[in-house]
Queue: 2 jobs
Job 1
Amino acid sequence: MLDGFWLDVKLFMAVEAAVLVAGLVVALVRHSRAPALFPLRLLATVYVDVFRGIPTILLVYLIGFGVPALRLSGLPTDPVVLGGIALGLSYGAYVAEVYRAGIRSVHRGQRDAALALGLTEAQAMRHVILPQAVRRVAPPLLNDFVALQKDVALISILGPAEAFRIAQVIQGQTFNYTPLIAAALLYLLVTVPLARLVDRMGGAEGVR
């Protein structure tokens, strides 16, 4: 079961890294008002609306079983990879909106001041707006990652031997629910410290 949980942790870390980058890119595209980026803005809006609207478990099922059913060369067939892609698409949409809310929360005067000092729009975004926005949304981002750590268990429906799947198999063989309790405790070892970190960061934001 520990080996299965280590698979969960590795998948969580990989998906988290991808989501942080992809979510920021989507948020920046949606925030941009450049006419040339309108097609990308439209695409980013559709992406956020669609993948926030589909339940994560359904998305894992559709991608995990649907992609191999296409039988197209070059597409991944590993259920862990497909499950990770599904989780990344789902959580990327949520994180993009968290980032966008943070960017919009920075007062317009900050941008105007940066431009008055001679910075370009891109430099103002990178050096002035984004650092403030990311600092403000750190607690909700961590909250999303607490949820992601738990939702990694959803890939069990695709068959990989992760902690929840292994606990189910052992329980089915022995009719003993202790393995499921052990799996729950393993998840708590990660999610509870993250939750306490969210609480501390939220309190610090309130003080500031």
Job 2
Amino acid sequence: MVLADRAGVFVAMIFNKPDEYGGAMAIIAVLMYSIQLYADFSGGIDIVIGVAQLFGVTMDENFRQPYFSKSIGEFWRRWHMTLGAWFKDYVFYSVSLSKPFVKLSKKTREHMNTFFATFVPMSIAMFIVWFGTGIWHGASWKYVMYGLYYWAIMIIGLLTEPFFKRLYDKMHVDRQGKIYRLLQVVRTFLFVNVGML
């Protein structure tokens, strides 16, 4: 909470008067905003978990070092984990296992290759989840766009994964190497900063 409050002072100073500061200060403010959100939200949840333990109630962990994630999907499995689990259990599975989606899956398997037969129904179910996630954050278009931003990144990642896998294999890129993993973490962190902004 101390980190979040200190970051918040700096972020407010830059965001409230963006014309008075240069590009470097704006970039630092965006980075600090992500740190502020994480520290504030995670710190608040830690307080709730601790108070609940005082009364003998055990609550689920809600954050697991999300800024060290190597992909957007991993980020969302480590950020606000209880919300993600709720959307997975009550929206994603409800939609993807519904009769219309089972029929859609059968149709796609008849007319498409294996990759797209799985991809099409899954991407539609994910769209509904991320549209709902946006609305959960607030009833305005900026929140809907926030949810759909992450949906688009995940969909693009799924679509381009086969291409990049072949490319990396051809170039003999060690996808388990420390440098590659570090670059994945940095890339994901930058995508998240844009999303948070």
